[in-house]
Amino acid sequence: MYERALPQRRMTIEQNILPEFWNPPIIEAVLGVEFQPVAGWGVPHFGLFWQEIRADYPSFDVKLPLRNAPGGLAGEIGLAVVERPEVRCWFIDESQSRLLQLQDDRLVINWRKVRQEDAERYPKYTASRQIFEREWQRYHEFLKREGLGVPAVRACEVSYINHIEKGGVWRTFGDLHKVFTHWAPPTTETGLPSPDGVAVNMVYSLPKERLNLKLEIATAIRHADMKEVLQFTLTARGGPESSATEAVLNWLDRAHDVVAGAFKQLTTDQVRETWRGRREHGTI
Amino acid sequence: MVPFDPYFAMTRHDLRGRFATMLEAPAVAVQTVNDRWVESTPSSVAPAWYRELANFGEMEENWDGYGSPRISVDVLKTACQIVIESQCLNLPTPHISPTTGGGVNIEWAIADRELEVEVMPNGEVEYLRSEGEEMHDGSLNLEGDGFQGLAGWLKSGSEQAAAA
Fold this sequence. Notes:
The structure holds 2 protein chains of 2 kinds.
Chain A: H1 8-16, E1 26-35, H2 43-53, E2 59-63, E3 77-81, E4 88-92, E5 98-103, E6 106-112, H3 116-120, H4 125-145, E7 153-165, E8 199-206, E9 211-222, E10 228-238, H5 245-266, H6 269-273
Antiparallel strand pairs in A: 1-6, 1-7, 2-4, 4-5, 5-6, 7-10, 8-9, 9-10
Chain B: H1 6-24, E1 28-32, E2 40-42, H2 48-57, H3 73-88, E3 95-99, E4 103-110, E5 113-119, E6 125-131, E7 134-139, H4 146-163
Antiparallel strand pairs in B: 3-4, 4-5, 5-6, 6-7
């Protein structure tokens, strides 16, 4: 009942511009919205809201709340002296690949790759958007029923996290030019060897799109299999024109288009070829 | 067992000296806080021992010239969990090495006491503790508090040395 037909423009973008891959490097996608803290929100409301969504998210976890801008660097650490219990609830679906994060001023939807076959059928943006819209509507209706008002949106976020594994196109950090278009090949003139590690942050302001685009390239060790990867994170963050659901969704659409375009422009044909879609197999 | 988060363990280990009292207080938490779900540690902040373990995972079959197999992810993760636990128990950073057959050996030494924990290729964990000529070995169940007991024994070596 919450899912609506997507605008024609969105379908066209999905079909014509965005890359499709058989084995995409994406390991996590995040759609989030931050709003003014809901006055009157208390710990019992987490449980009441869980009752509403429990059929779709049967398990939960409790985390410290996010208190800075979403999209913080992985590994950021917080040391806090708290006056009262503060809570961020994770509601997790049965497949362990979909997560709804909720706290008094934020709602975030995450998808993650759990198994290789998840990557082969990773959800396109349209599917993630529909889930976001459904949960945002459910949250709105819950707040309304509880007499807690309507959330005043402050910012939204779209993030895509990619793991480009060592051993394919790149084997040393001297191979980064084979992965990223803006990276120059190493020269012998500097006398420097290949770097031992890489950490790059780039931020672009796109006022017309009402967002900032942050790109992070860093070497990382993935906990699941302890493999060394190049972690390429693209985060768009900004404010929609209003708190209306339509404005939030429009902002997410624009942000996604920017992120997808940047991903395509910044990765080389060589590395994208290794992820290339094979539609004839019918899995995408 | 503590969370599988090498950066958390290292940071907690580093903070303990300065904020020992605070870290014991129930209202204070040190935790990685972001809105991500997939867990990874950036190399720039990953402790050296964690990078070393990850490197073991890249070693090809017959890495020792004696036909040893590759070290499995499960062995590496168990080794990692033990080091994280040791960091949270305030042990010094251990010496880590691969063992023939595809296991990982982890060693600590404090004063006259030495503790070796070996993660076997089949995932079982064995230990050898020694003080001078005296040695004792056995199996270790990581679900229980056996490792805490060994860590306590190891640390008390430095107290005895200081008292002497």
